[in-house]
Amino acid sequence: MKKIVNPYVKVEGYNCFACSPYNENGLQMTFIEDGDYLVSNWTPKGFLAGYNHILHGGIQATLMDEIASWFVQVKMKTAGVTSNMNLRLKRTVHTNQGPLKLRAWLKEVRRNLVDVNVELVNPDGKVGAEGVVTYYTFPQEIAREKLNFPEPDDFFKKAT
């Protein structure tokens, strides 16, 4: 397993709701490469509940979209934009029962469309939500120019 370094922390104005460590109101996701998978171990905060300590469905969708985005960046070595999300909320996901695990892995590549399987796993090991996120990807040069995409190796360099 390899810890993924967030190269965007060096970009001025970077404050992503999902992955910026500087966004106090954000999700502050971090990532690990585990073979063919990208993984995020994430502990929900109580204020993200819809009601009764249940993680809001929109936050679940954001988590799955974000890990799919990082999968595209790290594993496909480019960046893109979300084109489609087909998610299924299978079981209740609580904000007060411990860390959750998100996993993403490749389903299919169709030209510049990348389908990424995603799942959100409860502390008991049961899948709380799953789906497929489709990303419209750009060639690296355009991803660098328009989306600040770094060199692919930057995801594995130690932060300075």
Describe the protein in words.
The protein is of the alpha+beta class. The chain has a single domain, classed as Thiol Ester Dehydrase, Chain A (Roll), CATH 3.10.129. The chain is 17% helix and 36% strand. The strands form 2 sheets. Strands 1-2-3-7-8-9-6 form a 7-stranded antiparallel beta sheet, with helices on one face. A hairpin with a 2-residue loop joins β2 and β3. The mean pLDDT is 96.
Summarize the structure.
Helix content is 17%, strand content 36%. The chain has 160 residues and is of the alpha+beta class. It has a single domain, classed as Thiol Ester Dehydrase, Chain A, CATH 3.10.129.10.
The whole-number mean of residue pLDDT values reads: 96
- Per CATH, what is the topology? Thiol Ester Dehydrase, Chain A
CATH class: Alpha Beta
Helicity, as a percent range: 10-25%
Question: What would you call the shape?
Answer: globular
> Cα distance, first to last residue?
21 Å
Oligomeric state of this protein:
single chain
Strand/helix succession: EEEEEHEEEEH
Give Rg in angstroms. Answer: 15 Å
Distinct helical segment count: 2
Number of domains: 1
Strand order of the largest sheet: 1-2-3-7-8-9-6
Number of strands: 9
Which residue ranges are poorly predicted, with pLDDT under 50 across at least 5 consecutive positions?
none
User: What is the CATH H-level superfamily?
Assistant: Hotdog Thioesterase
Structural class: alpha+beta
- Strand-residue proportion: 35-45%
Mind telling me which CATH architecture this is?
Roll
Major beta-sheet overview: 7 strands, antiparallel
